[in-house]
Specification:
The chain is rod-shaped. It starts with a helix and ends with a helix. Helix 2 runs parallel beside helix 5 and helix 3 packs antiparallel against helix 5. The protein has 5 helices and no strands. The protein is mainly α.
């Protein structure tokens, strides 16, 4: 089960492959920069989508473990849990909540250098037919691309931490289940 969780975590956090650079002059370079910016935008959205999945799973697991604790703490003493199981479940709950926090951090505004609309308007007005127009567009797009890649790297780290905590929480939950079941089978 841990191996499956790790494999899923690796798949979720693996960066997208980079496309080879096209050959040619300035227009090919501009096309490459433009395409890379679109790829980085897609990566940014994908990382957040994966973060939403991690948050959903962590939330479901927190709810399930909280319900188990609710039964264990009931006044009727319906469920009696060994201290080891209580400790493991408590730690796994903390890990699931921490995974959720890392995902929520992914949704804070990223520091992306967006092209300024007024600056772009001025650039269009002043330089539309100028010989350096392609370079100006490439400069703006490159700044945007660099900031997206930095944001993606930060998102990737947070998602990796969230997935790692979630996998550890799942492992601890499984260990708690064993601690709950083991006394039942020890007497046989």
């Amino acid at each position: 089960m841990l191996a499956v969780g790790v494999a899923i975590g690796v798949m979720l956090t693996r960066p997208a492959p980079k496309a080879p650079a096209p050959s040619g002059g300035a227009n090919a370079l501009g096309t490459l920069i433009h395409d890379e910016a679109h790829r980085a935008e897609a990566d940014f959205s994908e990382l957040r989508r994966h973060g939403q999945a991690v948050l959903t799973i962590a939330g479901v697991l927190v709810a399930a473990l909280s319900t188990l604790f609710g039964f264990a703490a009931s006044k009727d003493d319906v469920v009696s849990m060994p201290r080891t199981a209580v400790a493991l479940i408590t730690i796994s709950l903390v890990f699931f909540v921490m995974a959720g926090v890392f995902v929520l951090l992914m949704f804070l505004p990223a520091r992306i250098k967006w092209p300024d609309a007024r600056g772009l308007k001025n650039l269009v007005t002043a330089s539309w037919d100028s010989p350096g127009w392609d370079k100006s567009v490439a400069d703006v797009t490159t700044d945007y691309l660099v900031s997206l890649r930095k944001a993606n790297s930060a998102q990737h780290k947070k998602l990796s931490a969230a997935v790692g905590l979630e996998v550890a929480g799942i492992f601890l939950s499984a260990a708690a289940a064993v601690a709950l079941i083991a006394p039942t089978y020890a007497g046989r």
